[in-house]
Write a structure and sequence with these properties.
The chain has 369 residues and is mainly alpha-helical. The chain folds into 2 domains: 2-42 and 167-368, no CATH class; 49-151, abc type-2 transporter like fold. 65% of the residues lie in helices and 5% in strands. It has 15 helices and 4 strands. Strands 2-1-3-4 form a 4-stranded mixed sheet, covered by helices on one side. Helix 4 (60-71) links the parallel strand 1 and strand 2. Helix 3 packs antiparallel against helix 8 and helix 8 (170-200) runs antiparallel to helix 12. The chain is elongated, with a radius of gyration of 28 Å.
Length: 369
């Protein structure tokens, strides 16, 4: 009888969801739009950094140096105008200014110091760091090219990129976007649905029924977990068709881990729906808690080892961080259960705790009524 009541509650929730066209659009159209925006708009590699170069030496070596700077595909040339230094940086027309002094080639051939003046706009810290490393690397390669055996180093590193040798950004961005999107939309849907029942007074009928708090929560959770799984399948298909992100190796960690993550994600939406009274406050709570944690405390764009204390401690309580790591393992590394079993276990543990909190809140509401 208890299983039948839960099943009937699941069917009722799905029927109500199907009637809500706005909810259906929110569930299946907006996540795809969000994936397209994130997948095509976010770029982590610095490109098209404006650079102005003044070559006072005008020799074959100095021109080779300039050519190799632009051959990195990081910089775009902007004309050098005027003689005031750093005029281009002050005007904002360039982010990097390079001046090659006269006598540059002669000093290099004579194995003397030959300083090259490089000014970098430090307002953009990431581009500044990338520009500095690129210019230093090009300078060393030019020296080795000019000096030949005399520039031979004692240690030569041979670097090989595993899992993503082509450095495709989509293999990093898109699996992370799966976690961010699925962490926001399913809990948003269930929170809005629960608060709407409060506003319309229909939740009183549930209180008057024979459903217990656990049965009511299971019915709602399973219904919106099914909706979330539908979203996940749709996102995986779009990611494969548009970005070429496919499963590598054993897919069972993703098959098992996605419903468990849906459980944890939906429970937080239930908790917010229980403790809020209006749809606007529920949306604001989801936007604040889920969006900020998914973008800042889940390792989506920024490495977690760079998160400062005490937020680094809170990051361990965010289920989406484990699902993002799971997705990147399944879609990029493909190590199977060996590298993902602990992620699934942690998500299940967090989801169980959230279910307990939601049950306590629902039980408290039923008793107060």
């Amino acid at each position: 009888m208890r299983i039948r009541r839960i099943r009937n509650q699941v069917l009722k929730e799905l029927e109500q969801f199907q009637r809500d066209r706005l909810g259906v659009a929110l569930a299946f159209v907006l996540p795809v739009i969000a994936l397209l925006i994130i997948g095509f708009a976010i770029r982590l590699e610095a490109r098209n950094i404006a650079m102005a170069v003044q070559d006072l030496d005008n020799t074959a070596l100095s021109r080779t140096y300039i050519e190799r700077l632009y051959a990195t595909h990081l910089f775009v040339a902007v004309p050098w105008r005027g003689s005031v230094f750093p005029d281009a940086l002050d005007r904002g027309t360039a982010q990097v200014q390079v001046t090659i002094p006269s006598g540059f080639t002669a000093n290099v051939i004579a194995n003397r110091q030959s300083p090259v003046q490089v000014l970098i706009d430090g307002g953009d810290v990431i581009n500044a760091r990338v520009s500095k490393l690129a210019i230093e690397g090009v300078f060393l390669s030019v020296l080795q090219y000019q000096l030949g055996e005399r520039s031979e180093l004692g240690v030569v590193s041979q670097i090989r990129l595993w899992f993503n040798p082509g450095r495709r950004e989509s293999l990093f961005i898109v699996p992370g976007a799966y976690g961010v999107i699925l962490a926001v939309f399913p809990p948003l849907l269930i929170a809005i649905a629960l608060v709407r029942e409060k506003e319309q007074g229909t939740i009183l009928q549930l209180y008057a029924s024979s459903l217990s708090a656990a049965e009511l929560l299971l019915g709602k959770s399973l219904a919106y977990m099914a909706v979330g799984l539908g979203e996940a399948v749709l996102l995986f298909i779009v990611g494969f068709l548009l970005f070429g992100v496919s499963v590598m190796g054993d897919p069972t960690p993703l098959i098992v881990g996605t419903p468990i993550f849906m459980l944890a994600s939906v429970q937080l939406g239930l908790i917010i729906g229980i403790f809020t009274t209006t749809q606007s406050s529920a949306v604001q709570a989801i936007g604040t808690i889920k969006v900020l944690t998914a973008f800042l405390l889940a390792g989506f764009l920024f490495p977690l080892n760079s998160v400062a204390f005490p937020f680094s401690v809170f990051a361990y309580l965010v289920p989406v961080r484990y699902f993002i790591e799971l997705c990147r393992n399944v879609f990029v590394r493909g190590s199977g259960w060996l590298g993902t079993w602990h992620l699934v276990a942690i998500m299940l543990f967090i989801g169980s705790i959230e279910f307990g909190i939601a049950w306590w809140g629902m039980r408290r509401m039923q008793l107060s009524r």
